[in-house]
């Protein structure tokens, strides 16, 4: 925060609507003042995945009340806001549109600049709220229901973020959700698998796709199919499914590849800081294995608390705040919402 006190810095309102959470955050000078959330996750649960139209409608209903709650949580008023930041993409097109339209309306009505930000860069930026400025360059592993990405981050505020690899099929969280469904667990599947795995042993040798292919890409759909075949075979043989062991073995296959590739990316780029974010970063085994492997490799691991790992408005406000402080020019008021926004 370049020597200034947080009290002098601009107040940034952040709006996140890329998936099923309407998130609003207020950040001033790297300090989180409010973080409010309205989630439509319960409305999607019976479909086993997020339905874009339901998410967009829920954002529309939740937007103004969620902004108002954030302001009242921080004891501030609309006119205290100095800049508005919003996720411009990537994400669900209709969901993004609601957030971008709302952000434009707030920016225009309040006469303040608008900053369209990248969703994945915001996932990285949220860590600065807890652990301070990010040393550049850093490597980020972002794993959620919509993405599994390894990024090289030379300068977050200036938008210098390079993709090193991504999933070629299912995202890590999506694989958790699908495997949970086949084990009869509720959506979202990450938390129940995480819990079940604690009582099991990772003894079933599920495949580690792309583990040693030299790229930083991931693939999880083969693993999901392998789990499905294994469970079916037990059923055909009339034997009970050892749910805890299946959960632990599936989870070990996922986190083994995620952590091995993250450490390899740090080594390949001579980087000694790894940030892990996204909903799957809440996973207890991923955290433990990442800690062990980073320690062995001399890498500093930074993982935000679980509430900041999942989609939220604080992350958008955090990145907006970094941009405003770095003097990054605002976005034009006709900035589009882009479901496939590149870096
Ligand atoms: O970041 P997020 O809230 O939303 C997006 O998808 O962008 O991530 C949600 C994903 C879901 O797939 C959920 O199953 C997964 O994060 N997740 C977890 C855990 N908690 C949430 N996966 C593994 N272990 C967890 N403890
Ligand atoms: Zn996300």
TrEMBL record:
Domain Gcp-like: 32-317
Catalytic activity of the protein: L-threonylcarbamoyladenylate + adenosine(37) in tRNA = N(6)-L-threonylcarbamoyladenosine(37) in tRNA + AMP + H(+)
GO BP term (any one): tRNA threonylcarbamoyladenosine modification
Keywords recorded for this protein, A-Z: Acyltransferase, Cytoplasm, Hydrolase, Iron, Metal-binding, Transferase, tRNA processing
Highest taxon, organism lineage: Bacteria
UniProt enzyme class: transferase
Cofactor note: Binds 1 Fe(2+) ion per subunit.
Entries under CDD domains matching the protein: ASKHA_NBD_TsaD_bac
Binding sites annotated in the UniProt record for substrate: 142-146, 177, 190, 194, 283
Cofactor field: Fe(2+)
One Pfam family this sequence matches: TsaD
Record GO terms (molecular function): hydrolase activity; iron ion binding; tRNA N(6)-L-threonylcarbamoyladenine synthase activity
Residues that coordinate or bind Fe cation: 119, 123, 311
Signal sequence extent: none
InterPro entries (alphabetical): ATPase_NBD, Gcp-like_dom, KAE1/TsaD, TsaD
A single Gene Ontology CC term: cytoplasm
Subcellular location: Cytoplasm
SUPFAM superfamilies: Actin-like ATPase domain
Its EC number(s): 2.3.1.234
Similarity comment text for this entry: Belongs to the KAE1 / TsaD family.
Entries under HAMAP family matching the protein: TsaD
Function as written in the Swiss-Prot or TrEMBL entry: Required for the formation of a threonylcarbamoyl group on adenosine at position 37 (t(6)A37) in tRNAs that read codons beginning with adenine. Is involved in the transfer of the threonylcarbamoyl moiety of threonylcarbamoyl-AMP (TC-AMP) to the N6 group of A37, together with TsaE and TsaB. TsaD likely plays a direct catalytic role in this reaction.
Protein name stated in the entry: tRNA N6-adenosine threonylcarbamoyltransferase
